[in-house]
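INFO  loader      accepted 1 record
INFO  loader      residues=292
INFO  predictor   begin
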Amino acid sequence: MLQTIVNGLLIGGVYALIAVGLSMIHGVMKIVNFAQGDFLTIGMYFSFIMYSFMPRGSLPYWLLVPVAILMFLFGVVVFRTTVCRVIGKGDSNYILLTLGLSYLVQNLLQLIFGPNFRSLDISNDLKYSSIPFFGDTLIMTPRLVAFAGALLFVTLVTYFLSRTDLGRAMRATAENTAVAQTLGINVNLVFTIAFSLGTLFAGIAGLLMTPMFLISPQVGTTFSTIAMCAMVLGGLGNLKGAMIGGIILGLVESLSSNYLTMDIAPVIINTVLMLVLIFRPYGILGKGVRHA
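INFO  predictor   done
INFO  writer      dumping tokens
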């Protein structure tokens, strides 16, 4: 039981990182990015390419820096060329656009890398290394590093939003875009930063998960669903709620996979989501909308 809980907490931290990026985009721009999981896949392929130039058996986690830069720039390009054109023009427009981006990314990746699964060329000793935790409980090193990286980035973005002028501008824009504009805030810049940071988070999650999962063009679809469930579970637009939702789903997935079957884990996750929404429609930390 303890081993299962530890595994769930560690993978839940990575799910939280994806959900926080998705929640940031929704909180500031009031849109849901249905291509978030595919941006994670791009981060995995960026990592795979960079790992291929490293000595066999190594796990150079300093790649966090170049992957983060590449994903942020990728987010800027995607936002400026596509997403910015549908903001404020109805929900159906951004839904169709981000779904189209999802299919486009998947097909481009399949065209470039092929449909076959890929994995990092690292030694089993490193891939399956572990640290004693308590009694017979072990912590897998790649999972621990992934959890630590997710916690680091969530901490940094929390500090950024609360302690910097740009972060405060993003929070003001999330509260009321029209008022933020009257106060002189460059809303277009804020939208660009928010979308790019969300894309960066997805890419970093992809890098951290690359040593643990096989890579394929469609691998991000599952993680996109989990991220959306975590975001809704925690409360739309609430970063702390997204993190809590991600950890809860990681625990639910680990427990159901270990004590039932792996195939039933998605069913249990969606059942938990429905139960929470029945008794708390706005999510764990979400707040209802006031009506005059």
